[in-house]
Amino acid sequence: MEGATLLGLNSLINICVSLLCIVVSWWVLMGVRIEAVIRPKRTAQAKALMIILSIVLGHNLATFLIDYLSWSRMISQLFT
């Protein structure tokens, strides 16, 4: 593959992994009752907090997975 095509494919994979990790984080946080910690009648703020936490946790998870994938590709180059 050419360099530009490989870069574009790598970027697309990174975007998909990031979005998938954010969705997984949202799904996990749906099991946590954040509303119990926040004052009554502040459900909009609780949902906003859930969205922010999902993005932060999902981004961190995606960064780890993308780095791990990159490092595992580098190890294969060690033996060639």
From TrEMBL:
The chain crosses the membrane at residues 6-29, 49-71. InterPro entries: DUF1146. The keyword Transmembrane helix applies. It comes from the Bacteria. Pfam families: DUF1146. Keywords: Membrane, Transmembrane, Transmembrane helix. This is Conserved hypothetical integral membrane protein. It comes from Lihuaxuella thermophila.
